[in-house]
Amino acid sequence: MKISAVIFTLIGVSSATSWGADCYDEKLDASGLLTANCDAGDGQGTRNATSIDLNKCFGWDGQKIADMPNGNYSESCTDCTLNRLVYRLPIYKKQVWMNCTCGEPAVDAALNTDRTRLDNVYGVLTC
Ligand SMILES: *[C@@H]1O[C@H](CO)[C@@H](O)[C@H](O)[C@H]1NC(C)=O
Ligand SMILES: *[C@@H]1O[C@H](CO)[C@@H](O)[C@H](O)[C@H]1NC(C)=O
Ligand SMILES: *[C@@H]1O[C@H](CO)[C@@H](O)[C@H](O)[C@H]1NC(C)=O
């Protein structure tokens, strides 16, 4: 009983709004358009080609890239790339970071996009 409760808890934590675990082949262009193939959730591994304008999701708050509706981050940030970091401890997880140069004067900035409202909902990216 106890062990299964722990396992369910870990599964719940690791899958919480983590689009990076369900999406593949992600690409980000200079205008902020993210395209990816995301698991449609039909249990058969079907992937849907989906896209979202990340300007609707993120903004530059003067110090960091923030989870911000209609934040228009690309007006302040350039050279943005998506980079997967793999953690093995304490639980295995993949996270997709967005690394950019932002602000005036320009500084390096990074956002863990798996900790934001960006999510895969049955094969459609939303935020
Ligand atoms: C696939 O994604 C597109 C665009 O994001 C969306 O309009 C469409 O409904 C999705 N199709 C399925 C089967 O989820
Ligand atoms: C972002 O751009 C949209 C469209 O140009 C605009 O409606 C919105 O007010 C802008 N948001 C911010 C925070 O500047
Ligand atoms: C992106 O930012 C994260 C967090 O600061 C960092 O660990 C990672 O090395 C960066 N990746 C690249 C390619 O700059």
Low-confidence stretches: 1-16
- Could you tell me the CATH topology label: HIV-inactivating Protein, Cyanovirin-n
Terminal CA distance reads 36 Å
- Biggest sheet: strands, sense, closure? 3 strands, antiparallel
Using the CA coordinates, give the radius of gyration.
16 Å
Question: What proportion of the residues form beta strands (DSSP E)?
Answer: over 45%
What topology does this entry show?
Layout: H1 2-15, H2 19-22, E1 23-28, E2 33-39, E3 47-53, E4 58-60, E5 65-67, E6 77-87, E7 93-102, E8 107-112, E9 119-121, E10 124-126
Antiparallel strand pairs: 1-2, 2-3, 4-5, 6-7, 7-8, 9-10
One 2-acetamido-2-deoxy-beta-D-glucopyranose is lined by residues 83, 85, 97, 99, 110.
Explain what you see.
The chain has helices at 2-15, 19-22, and strands at residues 23-28, 33-39, 47-53, 58-60, 65-67, 77-87, 93-102, 107-112, 119-121, 124-126. It has 127 residues and is mainly beta. The chain has a single domain, classed as Roll (HIV-inactivating Protein, Cyanovirin-n), CATH 2.30.60.10. Strand 7 (93-102) and strand 8 form a beta hairpin. The structure holds 2-acetamido-2-deoxy-beta-D-glucopyranose (NAG) (3 copies). One 2-acetamido-2-deoxy-beta-D-glucopyranose binds at residues 59, 70-72. One 2-acetamido-2-deoxy-beta-D-glucopyranose (NAG) binds next to loops. It comes from Apiospora aurea. Residues 23-112 form the Cyanovirin-N domain. Keywords: Signal. Residues 1-16 form the signal peptide.
